[in-house]
C-alpha cells in the first residue's frame, strides 16, 4: 500500500463514490481540513496511520461514519468518537460477498462525473483538492501511454510512489488497462542496498525484475551517486575501463548510436534495478542532465523526462524513446496543447532569441476542473478559451525548441528579486548544485532585502566523513556537520561546481548550513514526491537563516 490516505465522498444523487486522496505526510491539521472540506463519510487507511495520524483529529470530522483499515489486525473501537464504525478490510470483503448485499442496476458514471479529488501536498499553505473527472483520466492516460511503445501484458511495472501522486495513480490504472503486471515496493526497499533491506537479502527490483519504472529525480540522483561512489572504490584497471566505456558510449549516444560491447561492462549496474528495465520515466521535478545521461548510459535503456501536474492529470509532455537529448521534457502529448505566455517581470517573452520563452499554459481534455471549493483559485489558475477548451496556468517558465520539444527554464514561484535588483531562480540553483559530490540534497534561500543567496544542505555522509578524516576532524556525524571547517569545504566545492557550469555570481550561495538529518516525507520537509516544502524548510531553519543573514 502506498503511504496515502484514501477517502470516499458519497454523492447521493448518483450513488457513485468519489475517491479523495491525501498524502499521509500532509500533517494532522491539513488532513482534517481536507476531510471536512469534502464532507468525507468513509475512510480507508492502515492501522498505523489511523493510530498515529488520525485518531486525534477524528472528533473534528463530523461527517465521517465508517473507517476501514487494510491490515490483518484487530483494533478496539475504544477511544474513537461515537457514531464512527471501524471495519477491517477482510470483514468488508465478506460483507460484499453475500448475494443480498450485491446491488444491481446501479447507474454507471459518465465522462463528466467527478472521479477523484486529489489533494496536492503543496509547498506552502493549505492543501488544495484538484477535481479530476473521468474524461480527464482517460485523456491524460491516452496521452501518456502513446509515448510508451509496446506497452502490454509482457511488461512488469514496479510501483513504489504513493497512489496519492498523480503520476503513480495514472501509471497503475494504465497498467491495469493494458494488462501489465504490477509489483508493489517502497523507496526504502527498491534495491539490494536500500535502507530497509537486510544485508545479504535481495531488494524488490532484484526479485521482481521490472521492465518499466517511474521515478522522481531525487531517487535517480541517489542511484547515480551510489554507483559513482562504488566506481571510485574500484582498482585502477576497473576504474579506467569503466571511464573509457562510459566516455565511448556517451559519444556514440550523441551520434544516435548504441555501444553493445560497452553494455556488457554496465551489466552489474543494470542489475541494481533487476537488469530488465526497458524504459524509465522521470517526473515531478527537473532531472539534471548529468543524472539523465548517467541513467541512459549505465542502465542501457531510454530515460525519458515527463512534464505534467496534478492539475493536468499528470499529462503534458514526454520525451520520445529515440530522443537522447538532456534537459528537455519532450513534445506535447496527443491529449493536450501547450502555449507560452509572456512574463514581463521575469524577462521572458515569445520574441526571445534563439527560442520563444514564457509561462507554460496547458489546455485539453486532460486539464482538470479546478480546485474543490476554491472559486478564487479557479479564476486565477484555470480559464476556458473562446472554443470552450479548459486551460491551466502552470507557473513554470518554458522554452520551446524548433523541433517542438519543451525545456523548463524557470519557475515563477521560485523567483526571488535580490536587494540589488537581480532575479534568482532558486530551483535553477538547486538543480545545478546537486552535481556536487558532497551534496545529497539542497534548498536555496534568498530574501528580497538581502543581496546574496544562502543554502541548507543535506551532505553525503560517506563523502563528508572521509573528507573530515582527511582534515583530522573526528566526532559524531552531527558534530562533523556543525564544524565550521566542513562548511567551508562544502562551500569551496559549491563554488567550483557553480563556476564550471557558469552560474552567475549572485546565484552562488555565500553561506550554508549542513543538516545531519536527511529530508524525508516523514520529517515534513519534503513531499512524498521529494519536492522541497519551502515554507516548512524556512521555519525549520529559521535560526540558521538569522545567523547567516546576520553575518556575511
TrEMBL record:
State whether keyword Ligase applies.
Answer: yes
Which Gene3D superfamilies does the protein's record reference? N-terminal domain of ligase-like (3.40.50.12780)
Known EC number: 6.2.1.3
Listed under GO cellular component are: endoplasmic reticulum; lipid droplet; plasma membrane
Q: Signal sequence span per UniProt?
A: 1-27
Q: Provide this UniProt record's keywords sorted from A to Z.
A: Fatty acid metabolism, Ligase, Lipid metabolism, Signal
- Swiss-Prot/TrEMBL GO biological process terms: long-chain fatty-acyl-CoA metabolic process; neuron differentiation
Segments traversing the membrane: none
Enzyme category, top tier: ligase
One molecular function GO term is: arachidonate-CoA ligase activity
Q: Which InterPro entries match?
A: AMP-binding, AMP-binding_CS, AMP-dep_synth/lig_dom, ANL_N_sf
AMP-dependent synthetase/ligase domain: from which residue to which, for each copy? 18-372
Protein name as catalogued: long-chain-fatty-acid--CoA ligase
Q: Which organism is it from?
A: Sinocyclocheilus grahami
Amino acid at each position: 500500500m502506498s503511504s496515502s490516505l484514501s477517502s470516499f465522498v458519497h454523492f447521493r444523487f448518483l450513488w457513485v463514490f468519489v475517491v479523495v486522496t491525501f498524502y499521509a505526510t500532509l500533517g494532522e491539521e491539513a488532513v482534517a481540513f481536507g476531510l471536512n472540506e469534502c464532507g468525507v463519510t468513509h475512510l480507508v487507511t492502515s492501522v498505523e496511520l489511523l493510530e498515529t495520524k488520525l485518531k486525534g483529529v477524528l472528533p473534528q470530522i463530523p461527517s465521517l461514519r465508517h473507517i476501514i483499515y487494510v491490515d490483518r489486525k484487530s483494533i478496539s473501537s475504544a477511544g474513537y468518537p461515537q457514531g464512527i464504525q471501524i471495519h477491517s478490510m477482510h470483514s468488508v470483503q465478506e460483507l460484499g460477498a453475500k448475494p443480498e448485499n450485491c446491488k444491481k442496476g446501479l447507474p454507471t458514471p459518465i465522462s463528466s462525473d467527478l472521479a477523484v479529488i486529489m489533494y496536492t501536498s503543496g509547498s506552502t499553505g493549505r492543501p488544495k483538492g484538484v477535481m479530476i473527472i473521468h474524461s480527464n483520466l482517460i485523456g491524460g492516460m491516452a496521452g501518456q501511454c502513446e509515448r510508451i511503445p509496446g506497452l502490454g501484458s509482457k511488461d512488469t511495472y514496479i510501483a513504489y510512489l504513493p497512489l496519492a501522486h498523480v503520476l503513480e495513480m495514472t501509471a497503475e490504472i494504465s497498467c491495469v488497462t493494458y494488462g501489465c503486471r504490477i509489483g508493489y515496493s517502497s523507496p526504502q526497499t527498491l534495491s539490494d542496498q536500500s535502507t530497509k533491506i537486510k544485508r545479504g537479502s535481495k531488494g524488490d527490483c532484484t526479485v521482481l525484475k521490472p521492465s518499466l519504472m517511474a521515478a522522481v529525480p531525487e531517487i535517480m540522483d541517489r542511484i547515480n551517486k551510489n554507483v559513482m561512489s562504488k566506481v571510485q572504490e574500484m582498482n585502477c584497471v576497473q576504474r579506467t575501463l569503466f571511464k573509457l566505456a562510459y566516455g565511448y558510449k556517451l559519444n556514440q549516444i550523441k551520434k544516435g548510436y548504441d555501444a553493445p560491447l560497452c553494455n556488457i561492462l554496465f551489466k552489474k549496474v543494470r542489475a541494481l534495478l533487476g537488469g530488465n528495465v526497458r524504459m524509465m520515466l522521470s517526473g515531478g521535478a527537473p532531472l539534471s542532465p548529468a543524472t539523465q545521461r548517467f541513467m541512459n548510459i549505465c542502465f542501457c535503456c531510454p530515460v525519458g523526462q515527463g512534464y505534467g501536474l496534478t492539475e493536468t492529470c499528470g499529462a503534458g509532455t514526454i520525451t520520445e524513446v529515440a530522443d537522447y537529448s538532456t534537459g528537455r521534457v519532450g513534445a506535447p502529448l496527443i491529449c493536450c496543447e501547450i502555449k507560452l505566455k509572456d512574463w514581463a517581470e521575469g524577462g521572458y517573452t515569445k520574441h526571445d532569441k534563439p527560442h520563444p520563452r514564457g509561462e507554460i499554459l496547458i489546455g485539453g481534455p486532460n486539464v482538470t476542473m479546478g480546485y474543490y471549493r476554491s472559486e478564487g483559485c479557479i479564476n486565477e489558475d484555470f480559464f476556458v478559451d473562446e472554443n470552450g477548451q479548459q486551460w491551466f496556468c502552470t507557473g513554470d517558465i518554458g522554452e520551446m525548441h524548433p523541433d517542438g520539444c519543451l525545456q523548463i527554464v524557470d519557475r515563477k514561484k521560485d523567483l526571488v528579486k535580490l536587494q540589488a535588483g537581480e532575479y534568482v531562480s532558486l530551483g535553477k540553483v538547486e538543480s545545478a548544485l546537486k552535481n556536487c559530490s558532497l551534496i545529497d540534497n539542497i534548498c536555496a534561500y534568498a530574501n528580497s532585502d538581502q543581496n546574496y543567496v544562502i543554502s541548507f544542505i543535506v551532505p553525503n555522509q560517506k563523502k563528508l566523513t572521509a573528507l573530515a578524516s582527511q582534515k583530522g576532524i573526528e566526532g559524531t556525524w552531527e558534530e562533523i556537520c556543525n564544524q565550521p571547517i566542513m562548511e567551508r569545504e562544502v562551500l569551496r566545492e559549491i563554488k567550483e561546481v557553480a563556476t564550471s557550469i557558469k552560474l552567475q555570481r549572485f546565484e552562488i550561495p555565500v553561506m550554508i548550513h549542513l543538516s545531519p538529518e536527511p529530508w524525508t516525507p516523514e520529517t515534513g520537509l519534503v513531499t512524498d514526491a521529494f519536492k522541497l516544502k519551502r515554507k516548512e524548510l524556512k521555519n525549520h531553519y529559521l535560526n540558521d537563516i538569522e545567523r547567516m543573514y546576520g553575518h556575511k
